[in-house]
Design goal:
The chain is an alpha/beta fold. It is built from 16 helices and 16 strands. The chain has one domain: TIM Barrel. Helices cover 39% and strands 14% of the residues. Strand 13, helix 15 and strand 14 form a beta-alpha-beta unit. The protein is globular. 49% of the residues are buried. Belongs to the glycosyl hydrolase 1 family. This is Glycoside hydrolase family 1.
Length: 479
C-alpha cells in the first residue's frame, strides 16, 4: 500500500483520549463526591493491594493521593483544548465524572456546578470544531454507592445510573453526539472496584457477584441506549471493550481451545451489547462455576431491543496463553498479565508491542459483529526525558503509534468499518493502574512527577508535530 493513498474516510475522527478521574483533579471542588481513584495511594504505597481491598482502603489514610490534583485539567482545560486544536483534533474522548454530577450516586438532584463544568468543556471543544466523545462511566462509580450498596452488585444502581444518563443526555443534547456507556466493561471481572464499585473481599462466590453486577451493567447499558436514542435520535451510543487478541502458545489444539476461552471472557460482554442476548457458551460456564444470575422480567427484552450503534475498544497489546501449567513465563499488560511472546518486544512496563495484533483484533471484532468500530485507546507508556533545551524526543512513541496506524489502515483495506482513532493519554496524566506520572503516553508533556511535584506547565513533545501531520494528511503521512 502506498503511504500517499488515503484509505480513511474524509470524516474520520482523529483525536485523543483521557478520563476525568485521571486528569481533572479538583477532587472535592464545587460539590464533587469521591471517585474510586480518590481513595487510592500511589504505587509506592500499595495501590494494587488497595484496589483489591477498597473498604479497607477507605479507612486508611495515605500521605499522597495522585488523583487529588492530577494534572489539574479541571482548571486548565481551555489551555489543553487549544493544544488539541493545534494538533488538528477532530474528536476528543473524555468522560463525565459521575460523582461530580451526583456526589453520592443516589442523589435526587444533580450538582449544578458539575454540570456547568462540562457545559463549558464541551463549548470549548465546539469552539475549535472538536467533537466530544463521552464515556458515561469510566471507572467512576461513586464511592458512596460502594459504601451503601456494594456498588453494582445491587440492582438499584441501574436506576441511579439511568438518572445520571437522563440528566446528561438532556443537558448536553446538541453538544455531545457520541457516547459510550461503560469504559472497558469487561474490567469488572478483573478490577471489580474500578469496574463496578464493588468490594468482593468477603463474598462467598466472588465470580457470582461479578457476573451479577455485570448483568446489572448490561441491562443499564441497554436502557441507557434506549433513553439516549429517545432523547436525541442523533445520538450514537457505543459499548467499550478492553481488547487484544489472545493467541495460542502453540498449535496444540489444547492451547487453541484455551485461547478461545480467554477471548470469550471479553467478547461475552460485547456479544450481549451488540447482539442483544447471552451467548450460547455462557450457559455451561455459569453452570460449571455455580453462577446463578437473577434476571428480572423484561431484562431479556431490553437487551434484545437496544443494541449499541458501534463498538469501541482499547488496544495496547495482544496476549498469549497456554494449556500447559508448566509454561509460566509471564509479563505485564493492560491489567491482564500474559505469557511472554518470543516474537514481540515489550515496553518498559512489560507490555508487549504488537502492531499487527491491532489489525488481527479489528478483523476479529468486525467479523464477529459487523458493526462500525472505534479505536478509543492505543498508546505507549514510557519515561520521557526533557532535554536541556526543553525538547522531548519521544521517537519510541512515534514508532509505536506509526506502526499501529499502519496496521489500522490495513484493517480498513481488509473491509473493517472504522469511525476514528483516539490514542490514549493525549496529554500526560495519572496512570490508573499504578498511580504513576512517569508512565507517560501524551503528545503533551505535563511537568509533574510521581510525588506530585512540578509546575504543571504544558509543553509539546516531538510526537506532537508528528501526530499533527498524520491528522492533516488523514493518515497518509505517517513517517
Amino acid at each position: 500500500m502506498s503511504e500517499k493513498q488515503s484509505v480513511l474516510p474524509e470524516n474520520f475522527l482523529w483525536g485523543g483520549a483521557v478520563a476525568a478521574n485521571q486528569c481533572e483533579g479538583a477532587y472535592l471542588e464545587d460539590g464533587k463526591g469521591l471517585s474510586p481513584v480518590d481513595i487510592l495511594p500511589d504505587a509506592a504505597h500499595g495501590r494494587w493491594e488497595a484496589l483489591e481491598h477498597p473498604m479497607k482502603t477507605l479507612e486508611t489514610k495515605y500521605d499522597f493521593y495522585p488523583s487529588h490534583e492530577s494534572i489539574d485539567f479541571y482548571h486548565r482545560y481551555k489551555e489543553d483544548i487549544k493544544l488539541f486544536a493545534e494538533m488538528g483534533f477532530k474528536c476528543f474522548r473524555t468522560s463525565i465524572c459521575w460523582p461530580r454530577i451526583f456526589p453520592n450516586g443516589d442523589d435526587m438532584i444533580p450538582n449544578e456546578k458539575g454540570l456547568e463544568f462540562y457545559d463549558n468543556l464541551f463549548d470549548e471543544c465546539k469552539k475549535y470544531g472538536i467533537e466530544p466523545l463521552v464515556t458515561i462511566n469510566h471507572f467512576d462509580t461513586p464511592v458512596e454507592l460502594m459504601k451503601k450498596y456494594n456498588g453494582w452488585k445491587d440492582r438499584r444502581c441501574i436506576d441511579f445510573y439511568l438518572r445520571f444518563c437522563d440528566v446528561i443526555f438532556k443537558r448536553y443534547k446538541g453538544k455531545v453526539k457520541y457516547w459510550m456507556t461503560f469504559n472497558e466493561i469487561n474490567m469488572i471481572l478483573h478490577i471489580p472496584f474500578f469496574g463496578g464499585g464493588i468490594d468482593v473481599t468477603n463474598e462467598e462466590n466472588p465470580l457470582q457477584t461479578k457476573y451479577q453486577a455485570a448483568h446489572h451493567q448490561l441491562v443499564a447499558s441497554a436502557m441507557a441506549t434506549k433513553l439516549g436514542h429517545e432523547i436525541d435520535p442523533e445520538n450514537k451510543i457505543g459499548c467499550m471493550l478492553a481488547a487484544g487478541q489472545t493467541y495460542p502458545y502453540t498449535c496444540n489444539p489444547e492451547d487453541i481451545w484455551k485461547s478461545i476461552e480467554k477471548n470469550r471472557e471479553g467478547y461475552f460482554f460485547i456479544d450481549i451489547q451488540s447482539r442483544g442476548y447471552y451467548p450460547s457458551y455462557s450457559k455451561r460456564f455459569f453452570e460449571e462455576n455455580n453462577i446463578k444470575l437473577e434476571l428480572h422480567e423484561g431484562d431479556e427484552k431490553v437487551l434484545r431491543e437496544n443494541t449499541v450503534d458501534y463498538i469501541s475498544f482499547s488496544y495496547y497489546s495482544s496476549r498469549l496463553t497456554s494449556a500447559d501449567p508448566q509454561n509460566n513465563s509471564k509479563t505485564e499488560g493492560n491489567v491482564f498479565s500474559t505469557m511472554k511472546n518470543p516474537y514481540l518486544q515489550a515496553s518498559e512496563w512489560g507490555w508487549q508491542i504488537d502492531p499487527l495484533g491491532l489489525r488481527i483484533t479489528m478483523n476479529e471484532i468486525y467479523d464477529r459483529y459487523q458493526k462500525p468500530l472505534f479505536i478509543v485507546e492505543n498508546g505507549l507508556g514510557a519515561v520521557d526525558t526533557v532535554e536541556p533545551d526543553g525538547s522531548i524526543n519521544d521517537d519510541y512513541r512515534i514508532e509505536y503509534l506509526r506502526e499501529h496506524v499502519r496496521e489500522m489502515k490495513e484493517a480498513v483495506l481488509d473491509g473493517v468499518e472504522l469511525m476514528g482513532y483516539t490514542p490514549w493519554g493525549c496529554i500526560d496524566l495519572i496512570s490508573a493502574g499504578t498511580g504513576e506520572m512517569k508512565k507517560r503516553y501524551g503528545f503533551i508533556y505535563v511537568d509533574r512527577d510521581n510525588d506530585g511535584n512540578g509546575t504543571l506547565e504544558r509543553s509539546r513533545k516531538k510526537s506532537f508535530e508528528w501526530y499533527k501531520q498524520v491528522i492533516a494528511s488523514n493518515g497518509e503521512n505517517i513517517k
